[in-house]
Amino acid sequence: MNDKNVKDPAPSAVSRRQLVKYAGVGATLVAASPLAGAAPAAADDGADRTQGGGSRRRVWRAGDHHVHSEYSGSFDTSTNPPKFQKGGDAVYPIVTNAIMAKNFGLTWAMCTDHGGPTHSKVNLEQAYPDLLRSRILVPEVLQFWGMEFDAPALDHHTLMIPHHADEAQQLFELESRFAKNDPFPADPGRNTEAKMIEFLKAAKDMRQKPLVIAHHAARSATGLGVYGQDTPREFRNGNNTAPEIYVGFEGAPGHQAGPLNGGARGGYGSYPTHGGFDQMTARVGGLWDSLLGEGRRWWITATSDSHVHWTRGGSDFWPGEYSKTYVLARQDYADIMDGLRNGRIWVGTGDLITSLDLTADSQGRSAAMGETLSVSRRKRSDVDIEIRFRPLAGKNANGDRPEVQRVDLIVGRVTGPNSDLDSDTNPTTKVVARFGPRDWRKQGNEYVIKYTLRNVESDVYARVRGTSTDEAEPLADGLESPWDDLWFYSNPVFVQVR
Questions:
Q1: Quick one: where's region Disordered (predicted)?
Q2: pTM of the full structure
Q3: Which one of 194, 203, 241, 338 has the minimum C-beta count within 10 Å?
């Protein structure tokens, strides 16, 4: 079903007065926020503002697929069935999150609330009607339906449902059948890797195919490469089962405002993030590169994981205030999901830049992020890499004018499936070039970097990162302000030698 023809069911018995009252919660928060009006100048970022015909063009559109609302609540299990209480963990109405997402330049977002005993019914009967109201009140932000899935044997994951007439029933089916915390009384049989594989197989067989993305993947790690709930083996097994469903993990987790209240960035209390990014992503030649080196289409994203704003004692920024996931897409649900599924994604923090393009060219052919460039073995296989980025014109949400100090080009070999499912390194992956301001030239509102990979004789991938710092490699995070430590990362472009 083409999503542009789908109309959301009308919220039952909702009058104009009720809608205005409902919207007022979010509007009051925006007005009261010390950051109100501090959103970056979104009009210069290359993204269409959904006006006129431009919403049908593929441009970079900023979003956030991991946000919590008041439906991340608590359960009184002294009764049967358990009694749900809103606001036990996160506190903001769904519409408030949408209003703040719009305020900080997002065009798509998703509330991903925690599960719990019988939470599938809470989602279906309480949260979903509120989402429908929020879609009416904030139409500028495409608001996906889904949840923070209690993945069997793993930490939390995004479960994003395609936009269609039966989206609420689809989530109810998956959550009630497979979420490890949904049964009451608890069922230990739900919390096994076999159940996770069963879930992925069921999702893969659905006509409307969801997306699954791991959250804060190394938050439970106790050291570098000493993983906790999420392991390389589980990622490989899941991706092997459903490669078009299970497509990646958060490169930059949420809770980035933790240091502003004396906590750890991302809530990573045992082993820290590096430059705000999970060790699985930040370490060159680490787990992400190990997966890419197998040729896996495994992507990274960046989210807020917003529960409670740091100015109210939490550890969070609003959706889009600090972290953004950019997807090359039209302004419609299906194309945004297609971009997430196929790696047309780059991520950034602190609005260090507002657009990023990475292309590989050879023998008259070209490929961009998420795509594959094929070159011939019989011809000279030089591959020209072009990096284009646009700095922020104006101030970010902290009132700063961040500047890019360096851009790194990272290249690794693609050698095929690894027999060691626990492998978390790719020794072929290197920073092949570092670029400073003297190395890029201005072209309109963008800066352009060009580099040639000479005599490419085997399959490779290339990816890019950049920073506002002078750190050669992102350092382990302490209590420094996240606003002083900004990074962006592209997803890879692949080169296949035939």
A1: 38-58
A2: 0.93
A3: 194
